Amino acid sequence: MGVAAVDARPDLSPRDRLARVEQGFFVLGITALLCLAGAVTTDGFLTGGNVENLLRLSAAFGILAVGEAVVILAKGIDLSVAGVALGCAQATLAFMADGMSEWQAIALLAGVALVVGVVNGILVAYLEVPALFATLATGLLTIGGIDILLLDQNFYSLPASSAISELSSGSVLGVPRAIFVAGAVFVLAWLFVSYTVAGRLTRAMGDNFDTARSSGAPVRPLQVLGYVVSALLALLAGYMTVSVQGSVQTTVTSFDPLLFTALTVTVIGGVSLSGGRGTILGVLAGALFVGVLNNLLILRGLSSPLQDLVRGGVLIAAIALDAWLHPRDEETARSDEL
Amino acid sequence: MKTKAFSREIDAFPLTGGSRRDRLAPFRTLSELFGQRWMEGAVPLGLAVLLSVLVTATTPVGPGDAPLILDEATEKGLLAIGLTVVLVGGGIDLSIGSIVGLASLGAMVASRAWNWPMALVVPAAILAGSALGAVNGFLIARVNMRPFITTLVTLVAFGGAAAALQSAYSFQLGVPEQDIVWDFLGAGAVAGVPTGWVVFAVVLIVVHVGLTRSRWGWWIAAVGSDRRSARRNGIPVARVVFCTYVLSGALAGTAGLLTAARLGRTDPDVGQGWELVALTAVVLGGVSLKGGRGSVLRATVGIVVVQVIQQGTIATGAEGSSYTVILAAALLLFAVLDLKWGKYRQRTAEKLRIDPGRITLGPLVDVTEPGTVWTVNDRLTDASPIGLGKIEGAEDCAVDREGNMYCGDRRGWVWRFAGPDDTEGEIFARTGGLPLGHAWDHERRLLVAVGGMGVYRIHADGEPELVADKVRRSPFSLHDDSGLRAVDDLDVTPDGAIFVSDFSTRTNAAEYMVELVESRPNGRVVRVDPDGSTEVVISHHVFPNGICTAHDGRSILVASTGLCRVDRLWIAGPKQGQLEPVLENLPGHPDNINRSSDGNYWLPFVSMRTPMSDLLTKYPAVRRRMTQEVPLDSWVVPQLNVSCVMKFNDRGEVLGVMWDATLRNHPMVTAVKEHAGHLYLCGVSNNRVGRLRLESDEVGPIDPASVPGTTTAPSLAVVDR
Amino acid sequence: MKKKLTALLTAAATAMTLAGCTVDRGGSSAGGGAGGGKQTFGRNVQLFDAHKKTHEAMKGKRIAFVPILYKGYNLTLNWGSTMERAFGNLGADFRVYDPNFDTDKMVKIINDLVARRAVDVLILHNPDVGVLTKQIDAAERAGIHTVVVNMVSSRLGDAFIGVDSVHAAEDITRRAVQDCEKRGAPKRMAIIDGPGNDAASLMWSKGVHHVLDPAGYEVVTTAHTQWQNALAQQAAASITQQQKNNICAYMVAYDLNAIAVGDAVADAAERGVIRPDSIGVYTMAADTRWCDALRAGKVTASAAYDVQGVGEAAVVTAQQLVQGGAPAGSTHTVAYVSHTVVDRSNVDDTTIACYKGR
Predict the structure, then answer these.
(1) Cα atoms found within 13 Å of the Cα of residue B355, Cβ hemisphere only
(2) Chain A CB within 8 Å of residue B335 CB
(3) C71 shares a domain with C143
(4) What is the number of helices (H) and of strands (E) in chain C?
(5) What ipTM score was computed for the predicted complex, to two decimals?
(6) Is CB count within 10 Å lower at the N or C end of chain C?
(7) pTM, 2 dp
């Protein structure tokens, strides 16, 4: 890690210097190392087909992670994304199976996602329910409610000629469409966070909520906006997932792997759970890292429980690093900061 | 004469002229209810229990399901207990579901695949749970990671480990191992009670006692309430947090063992989603998500409610995910409730605290009309001042035989002004409260009713001694009315008992404004016997403010500021224990009563009635609104701004009235004491005590300072002519 | 405090010792259910009387069907609709309880039904060899007949009805071996089953091994999927990526998973990881969606079995148990329905293939 030499100020400890480095570059470096290791140990890893496939599979959780990052930047967290992504995708396929036109179904479910986002926002911003519990509950309510009200099959397949299936096939300007869409989301999110007033205020709010409020920022509407963005991106990610898989099974699980992957990407990308810190570049780096890791785990033939263990270990390491780089201040730490 | 114990206290409520309904103060009762500490968990818990009653009433769930519900509740209840401890410590543990799975599968693998003896499997399962909990604890307490996200990760990671374990031993797992210990844990009983229930009960009792009665439990609550304070008080925060996770893990391990024994499930999904059930249960049980507050008993009720709901969804055959949906909705609802109820409870209690009542006063005598006994004069104006500029607010005073004058002071002191002319002032005693009423006992020691503190006796060296500061708390009262806090006057009877008026059981002596605006029968008269025991003799009186033993020693007179009247309480003779009116419908609000030397009584008014104030007493709602919307100093209440003293006799005839119409020297008079042909004028906001020389025809042979009926011949002090 | 706790624990321990610990191993046979009644028919029967008696015997009998998953799942819907028709005609009270793939909930449903004695015959679909052991035991003691369909439990109950999984696996594996020989592919296959501790998976693996081991084939790996398509697809993708063309077939225990595996294989072929049509996908049972995939060329062949027949057989067995009058748990039967190998050439001519939900 030659990065420490970049910062010339002598009075900083190595930890502080490391904390100041953009974690995106750091993670990109590790990803490159991982790729190198993969190329040496696993044949068939560094082929054009595999890399393209890897990126295509990473598109869905990359998009999900962007939404999650926007919320976490504002010191919230959104656990409902997996529920929204899968539930809405399932419901869309169910409507299509019942003969509704595709765009109508998508518009309807976009409405549902919007409502979930707004409800999350209101619960967190106006009713001041801890975000963890509010979004945990709304996520379960979304997927459970959709299951009870809208689904009557265990298995839905995606019609081959639908717009959703087009999401992950074909290409735009020579780039596979899934990668193009994900890229567009990353660029837009980067512009939003870095150059718009709302984006900057969101980060300010995550850094110090009280100061942002005192300075007159519309903190509550901004929080709602964050959750709405997250829910809509979750919808897109859900379509992307279905598009890649070609079908969905509709058994409800409490914590879906999709949510877990999105959180991993966000945290590894340096978006600190204490809010206000992190960049979209970091999220991109995190998505690439997780994509490469997943691909390598599969190529090495690890069973899915073992993959869970490895991913869990990686995430623990990332959170531990975050906690080490940006420790809680014992003087200001509150007991209810979960 | 010996005062017999009153068989029952006299309820003075009828004096207000109110109906039975006026006795109730619904807002205040609500406020008191909200103010109770146990209300915090009671409302969520009550709602939760109501929910389960609803479920049992509307679904086929019945008594037959009770064993099933309890079986489930024991296993998940162990998780709920662990989770409660973690939550009280300010953390959260989501990984318990996977710990259950891992412990359950691990125990079965150990028994079925590795053929471990059960003597090893049982402790190993619990230890394994603790070890997994220790992983959480290490990451959270030592590495300082956030509990929610950390345990979310370990939930997935431990779940992965459980699935890997199951996958590796799936074949051997399918073959059940017969063992007496498995059967005992799963289907056995201790004294007829299923083993699981016994285990749960023991854990529940131990953890409850530990959490509420031990240093360990207090530390956890302290850390959960405020980490910083806990750390500064020397509590090892990290160690305490670590321990909560280990405990939670150990209980999850135990639950895993029990479920393995009872159901023998060998699929990797054992325990999946249990964390959500436990979380909902504890939130339903009113355990705060914010840390520091929660009880495992309430969490247990929560888990039973959740299980009843689940049984309801199962018995009605409701669709697959409806239970999840109900749980999520309940979690959300009760999380909001926890938040909002906690926030608004105190606020509402405070808002509803003042609840004015209705009283009925008779027609108003017009004191401004010339030519009556009430006609305004300036007799009090020229009283010579004592302690001018030294005294601040002497409500009452007492003069000893030597002519030394003792009076109270707002700052808690008792002054002594020596001499025949009372010129030399010194601080005689410091009470720490608000000295209000003064009287002499049989041994000529000074008795002081100290507002906010109780009845004190002050010895010759100025050392105060507590006589009484509490009575028995009345039964069925939400409000603790045992303290004698608003004591404002007292007098001694021939048998040595002290009668004290306590103007309010609710407000402190300094908050008399609240009492005046409320006009509710909150006051009482208390008898303090020579042995220190106390008894309420008149209850539900409106602002009793003056106490005076009658000249014959057989009754006491009680003045009520709120009701503008004076009553006689017979303490001896044929009418003993009866209350009869002496003066009714006075034109002002009376204060302390004292005997005069000519066998009559002195009674000052603190304030005069007006048509406006009379009107207000009839409209409690207006006064209520006033207290909520107008600052205290703008309240329309009887203002203490009149100097008027009247003399009346035992038959209730008004003999004469003296005024300071200018209000220049005495903005108010709250008590008068007669001594040696002089009248001492006290006022709770005056900067002096006035000394007024009386006309000789107004002075009689009695010493008003001595207890009636006790002294030898009425030793007339030297009358200074 | 410690003293108090010690005293408490001592007291508890003493109480335990004094009271003695007991283990309830059954024995208390109570009769709330139908078991133990008398036989409906004797040696001879009157022609019209039989109709009446049969209806009388079944009238009001409460029959519950608890599959692993019901809503939207063709296999169990097929059984359920058969049962609903048959029991409906007989005037019995038939009801389906849907645990929605949640074993925890399934156990609770059965416990609840047994505890409330709300049922006379339980028709169960066991997710896991070990899991329902205690429930079947409890049902028997409560006098409730149990019929287990398709996935045998280590506790048998009154009857098991289902496909002869081992035999079906052997048949389809023989077909797979034939295909591989024909292509001259490497002698390597992969098994993709369910959770691995359920009867179907165990017997499937057993049957596959019965054929492959003597034929000199190697089972590269056995992947467990929990019946989830996503996991099956992932497993197939990873195995394909690893093995490339060094594998000749996937033996998938579950037809719907086979579709996902077929997708993964087709995908790999499209991306040039493997040669097209070089890896076969074989399975057991033939859902109509599987038939669609077959026609689309994604999967190769299946040991289709008579799904409708399982439902019918369960109905018949339930009637037999009720009319026979023997106490619950007194007889034990294992009965199999027919199966045959279907592929593209005969799928449209085989009645037992391409079953639907209704």
Answers:
(1) 19
(2) yes
(3) yes
(4) 11, 13
(5) 0.86
(6) C
(7) 0.78
